Amino acid sequence: MAVHIGKQSVKFDLCAVVTATASTVGTKEGEGPLKEYFDVVLKDNLAGKDSWEKAESEIARQNISLAIKKAGLKNEDVDYIITGDLLNQCCGSTFGIRDMGIPYFGVFGACSTMGEAMALGALLVDGGGAKRVVAAASSHFCSAEKQFRFPLELGTQRPQTATWTVTGDGAAVLERKGKGPKITGITTGKIVDMGITDGNNMGAAMAPAAADLIERHLKDFGVAPDYYDVIATGDLGYVGRSLVCEMLEQKGITLGDRYIDCGIEIFDRETQDTHSGGSGCACSAVTFAGMLYSKLKSGEINRLLFIPTGALMSPTSLGQGESIAGIAHGVVIENVR
Amino acid sequence: MAVHIGKQSVKFDLCAVVTATASTVGTKEGEGPLKEYFDVVLKDNLAGKDSWEKAESEIARQNISLAIKKAGLKNEDVDYIITGDLLNQCCGSTFGIRDMGIPYFGVFGACSTMGEAMALGALLVDGGGAKRVVAAASSHFCSAEKQFRFPLELGTQRPQTATWTVTGDGAAVLERKGKGPKITGITTGKIVDMGITDGNNMGAAMAPAAADLIERHLKDFGVAPDYYDVIATGDLGYVGRSLVCEMLEQKGITLGDRYIDCGIEIFDRETQDTHSGGSGCACSAVTFAGMLYSKLKSGEINRLLFIPTGALMSPTSLGQGESIAGIAHGVVIENVR
User: Fold this and answer.
1) What pTM was computed for the model?
2) Which of A7, A129, A273, B70 is least buried, going by the fewest C-beta atoms within 10 A?
3) Residue A298: partners with Cβ closer than 8 Å, 6 or more residues away
4) What is the DSSP letter of A291?
5) In A, which residues are within 8 Å of B119 by CB distance?
6) Interface contact flag, B127 A123, Cβ < 8 Å
7) Rounded CA gap, B307 and B284, in Å?
8) Are A123 and A82 in contact (CB under 8 A)?
9) Domains and CATH numbers, chain B
10) What's the ipTM?
């Protein structure tokens, strides 16, 4: 039975095993530093469909199916799919998994969705409610730009604080039994809003939530940052990462080189011109399903604190003068017996 | 420990107790047949704010706070809030609970959200991940019409198959210990899409998912419809309810008078002119938090199968020719020792 510890955390007893992952990405991500780790790199970002939204659903469909296949399972073996995305009413996910016939919990955590999905999946497996769960998240640069910012055809100039929404889907299969690294704990985020209203500076909007979560996590579990081989936030980019370091330094917490951000890892700063880095639900999802999971399997990483980060807003809320609320969800994945 | 039974269900061991509920509704709902059961009837559907979206957030804020208070708790006693709504990027919920400082799992199940939130909440409490969870859902007639259909000012005529989005928020406090009816099981829905593309006929779009869920639930739990005092779907309205009865009759399942639909209960057909009935996340949420919970407490109902129903779509998906996918989540609430 899981134990609720500290203020925001759960320590698992029957830790869910991450038995397989799958990652499918767009063309730009397939040219970046993590390319060797992805299962599928699309040749066409429309994935053979006639709209960006349908493309995102198709990517989700193909990638979740691939994750199930890689785990040696069939659709009927999976008790739940927990997934979400950035599109209005989470349509990327809905239409992606529509024909799978698998019970579905839709989640919305903006770009923190992969963390939320993995946390809930681990809670279900540990609690006996499920033997096997697929946790996933998707985003698409073109559907996100169209929905949150401007039509691509406008060629709008992006400021240096802006991040680039990752095209792709990352999925993880969580099982009660099997081989692989295990989810040993979670720390669930509360909303932190420091009043940022610039939709082109999501890193700054999310950084306070990430810093708050890391501080809380270390207290709840009674560990220092050096317990972890890697601490990886979701999509803060260069701007957000430096803010997290600064805020935690003020509280006497030094993360050091073990702290990486998936948005910084996924694109090359010099050659790929994404400004502050990558973002979107898929940013942390594909980086986990690709590079981080691969290094956990090989033993290069044995203890990972994975913290997808989300900016809670809509074009309507921004237009009505609301600030951008941040959230972060922490998931501990370890190689344990 | 929970036990996964049949294909889509979980039977609980440490059943979460629904120790308190709160319901806040708009003016029209406050004039309907269920008015005596609601905690708060707004005098002003703007709730003192300057936009419908901000009003929805304010209603969510006030109602969730009221539920926590009615359970005799403070914010810091609550381990998680699980909530969602219909607005793009679930902003109704986000900005409603922003300042509460409670760990937050955002969910999206369209109008089935209350069922999803209660199911996940019960899984968390049973599994040891939480002692106390608030499950909630909100919707607002005006923000929903504006976002999904037409500006209210246009005075668009609504067809007879259309339903009326309920304004309000329903919240339930689920605890490991305490007095009240208990969540003894859940059946989680898969997406069922029969190809309906009429955004003004949500009842027909959701009915196949509801019928599928009921059939599955009865098989998984090995019970007949008469095990329950009341079987309540979320917001199918007159059109959807009759379709569910018809589809189940064809499979030899007769639900009879014990089968009600929250969308039919909440408005008066003769005097309130809502056409096919009520809908929206709040429709099932406030009907449960109000009338159904009250009757469970008094013993007028001892066994309830509560099935919020959702139509998974967005104006974009409809515009691109996608059909409306349906989902339904079943929650069993019983008076047991």
Assistant:
1) 0.98
2) A273
3) none
4) I
5) 105
6) yes
7) 8
8) no
9) 13-175 (3.40.47.40), 182-334 (3.40.47.40)
10) 0.97
